[in-house]
Give the backbone structure.
Amino acid sequence: MGLPVTPESLTAEVRLERSSDGMSPFLLDVAIEIPPGFTMLFGPSGAGKSTLLDCVAGLLKPSGGRIAIGSRVVFDSARSVNLPPQARRIGYVFQSLALFPHLSVQENVAYGLLGLDPAQRRTRTKRILAAFQLEKLRTQKPGELSGGEKQRAALARSLVTQPRALLLDEPLTGLDAALKSAILDDLRAWNAEARIPILCVTHSRDEVDALGERVIALDRGRVAGEGTPADVLDAPRKRRLAQVAGFENLLDGTVLDLRETDGVMRVALGEAAAELEVPLGYAAPGDRVRIAIRAGDILLAAEKPGRLSARNLLRGRIAQLQDRGALCIARVDCGAEFQVHLTRGAARELELAQGTPIWLIVKTHSCHVVRD
Amino acid sequence: MESLWLSVKLAAWVAGILLVFGIPLAYWLAFSRWRWKFFVEAAVAVPLVLPPTVLGFYMLVAMGPQGPLGSAWSKLFGRGLAFTFQGLIIASVLYSLPFAVQPLVVAFEGVDRKLLAASAVLGAGEWSTFRRVILPLSLRGVATSAILSFAHTLGEFGVVLMVGGNLAGITRTVSIEIYDRVQSLDYTQANRLALLLLALSFAVLSFVYGMNRRVRRRVWIPWASR
């Protein structure tokens, strides 16, 4: 089938100059390596995810850098190499999918195979239509397909050309979880053979968890972190990343003292009314730090619990209680305000209401020290 | 009836020629990023606002034996251009240019740029993308362009009068003949021809709109999709 013999990584070093305002010299300044398999590109909107993908695909010319798949260079500003998109052999599935509205599913899928002889074109098209469960929809136009079917067709259309790398710009947005994972299973199955690097843009934490062998977090055109989802997103070291990774509590504090033998430090929150024990970070007493805590990682107790492994026990009262159907959001005032997620059942059991005195329990390692 | 046939023949020639030259011109206008492009856009649109006599006057001068067009033509074909059917075609092509080019530009520009990007990343070059994506999605515009230039040429008067004069069977189109008849107070004959032209124009335009309606239902429209 002429597949790449050895799996090759996609390497991209991309700098893109900001056109107008001079806030920062570069709109995008990243160097990434995508090994074969899934890598998620995660970040808030406006972080430059799609721009990066456009640069890699050749739709946008970076001001500088080098893009290569294995040893095959598709862009190199130092050597004035800039292959047009049609010569790069990099698959790209847009968020809008961009299926050709005047062509049937089969014609869409075979679109990139014009250079092949008809027999080969038919075999390949047939095979991928089967792999993505599109045989029955062969003759339909994109306008007649459901969202999931369109997404399958767009994936098949890209993969049938045997690209050396695949870029996915949130192609699965708007699908329910079951459908999404069914499509991803097909994609994985296909890629088990092809072993190409797949860079998948998302801003959904769930999608990262579902797919992520690796994640690259992008923020304001820079790589904010990369590694496993647990490393990058569960212990964010940057404030913006913590926000987008779903840390509801971001609290300002001052370091009181370091207890290096225990690997912890104490931090006074806000107006020093509350204290937290948090993992040791690069800080000295008196430093301003910011602590990120997930609302779901905080426990509430109606009475003061004794002999607990969790090191942080704060006294407060419920400032506000919001019923969001499946979950309740409590705002607890302990001198600093915490957001806590709990089930409706738990809220009922504890007889929570506005003003109820409450104890708040936070494990040391649920607290993450983040930088700005 | 000879004049009507002449008008139809002229209109068909003009529509055909404008299709051949209008498509590349419109493609260039739709996709070029040349900074002085607006000059070309303005030049193409000039016949919309110019009195036909002005255009006709300059065409006549250019087509005369001393004019650039006329002298080049006589070198090539051994005869003049003014007051001939060929001369009429050339003048009418210029006069109907905006009617042919505008619908094409609108159609080409209306093709979703993401589709062009998708075509490129799938390996298709510029020509291939034009042939397989842009043109098939612009068929309505192409048909509208051809029919509008046909209909516009059919009803043309001033330019024909200036460049072609009034030679029976050669340059006397139906609109000229109507004018003639009215001048000689032959209202019955004038009315017959005028009515014919009216009916023909109406039929052609009905066809354009009817066709657009039918095509529109088949073409994928994002906000009408399920």
Summary: Chain B has a mean pLDDT of 88. The domain at 2-225 of chain B is CATH 1.10.3720.10 (MetI-like fold). DSSP finds eleven helices and no strands in chain B.
